[in-house]
Amino acid sequence: MARNYDTYRIGNRSEGPLRASEQSFKTRIRGFLFGLALVLSALTLGLPKTLNAATGPVSMRYADEIRVTLMNHLQLADLAVTPRAASLTLVADGSSYRLDANESIQLRYRNGQVEARFGRKSVKADLLLFELDGAGAFDVDGGSSSYMRTYTGDLEISAKSSGKGLSVVNRVPIEDYVASVVGAEYGLNDREGAKAMAVVARTYALHALERNTTLLDSERSQVYKGLQKANSAARQAAAATAGQILTYNGNLIEAVYSASNGGKSASNASVWGTNALPYLQSRKDPFDARTSPHATWTWEMDEGKLEKALSNAYGLNVRSVRISRTAKDGRVVEVELKGRSGSKTISGSAFRATLARAFGAMTVKSTYFDLKDRRGQYVFEGRGFGHGVGLSQWGAHGMALDGRSYEEILDFYYKGTRLEQIPQGTSVRTDVSLASLRSSDSGESRRAVERPSDPDQNASFQTDNSRSSMSISRSSGEESSASLDAVSNGNATPKEKSSTFSQDDKTASEAISAENIWGLERDKKEEAESASSKKKDDRKKRKKQRRSGW
User: Fold this and answer.
1) Where do the H-state alpha helices sit in 163-231?
2) From CA 50, how far away is CA 408, in angstroms rounded?
3) Distance (Å, rounded) from C-alpha 491 to C-alpha 486?
């Protein structure tokens, strides 16, 4: 398997006086060179892989900006967009309109088109493009949906093809996106794990786009909440790994991840029934086992209640439940439901999802479990949280605490892959933060902040590759410190990413997706909560109670 290593120079060795014939001399030289080659090979076997400049098709895949569909689960009848710290150009049907910073635009869905009202003007078109004229961001207010976020990049707003509300797409600089995802998806206190998460998030997004998969801003892809989650620590992780991706045989990998694998990672074949990939194989994970609070768990449920829930889901009068097939990695592959008039076999993932929908996501945390029938109770004794394929976020955290680098973390969870550096353009990051926007709005003077030689030493910086030179001021809050007490919200827990592998019809028809279990309801709750800052403390408590590894 392809792998690059650092090479080390071997010093000159004294071979003694040359007393042999010329032929003997040549023979010794050939032997010496052969031995030298063996020494070099031996030295390099244990060295970590280094960055490789991407060659071939990989370098053509990279995009400075990516498209993320926002609020896709909502039926947005109205919307407001407000530029912050910069003026805005609105393009509609070939005409352009300039609006000043802080001048709001009201948008409505109207007869299959988008209607925009600003000042005394009204514009109606199939597609509206919003472009900032300088360093700044957009406030996006979902109106009746109580959704409020701030984004960098550009916006495209159109009517949904389904005829149900507005479609909002954020064309965001890639490293802005990665920083936000790291802040939202990785809630653990370390630097190297956050860097590994940045590489994984970047690879996941580019792989999805390469497959023409719509990238959403929720758990259905990766959680992306704009500047609200792009705190200083997350920006550092994105900047320190800017442009780095994982490949296998020259192709972007399926960079799936979950919260915890319970001490043993799962293979993609056992969880999703797809062709086994060499970099997503099962292996023991001592780092997860000794670090994750989900390494082992137990859940019990009354027989009658559990059987009723399964009966309702599958139209079968269930009388008993048993595991019928387990994979070599310990994951439950099939579960048999026996009823009065027959039986039905479902996948382990569908079984877990059904119980999570009926009893909550914190019940059967993974398909890595044993099932026992004990005194009228079904007893689940399990390990891990999430599907367990690819990177374990708790395991990565354990490796970081053990002093491992992010390169070593990635090599452990995606064995045989290459860490490659993609050439970047001029619009990979804006370096705009909520703190800088507040400073701009208040009229405070701003000065440019130079990028330090080591981005880990400062929470705020800008690069020659940045899209703009927006300066960043300090203020109280998450942007004011480089501390990694929490890379994201202190109450957040790493979330599980599903595979985008295609599945057979049987599995697909049985599967109940995580978004139907809790994702959609939770999104709505969070958006409603964001309407009032007075509910902040209660929101933190609720998030802590509903931590999830889906």
Assistant:
1) 174-185, 192-210
2) 10
3) 9
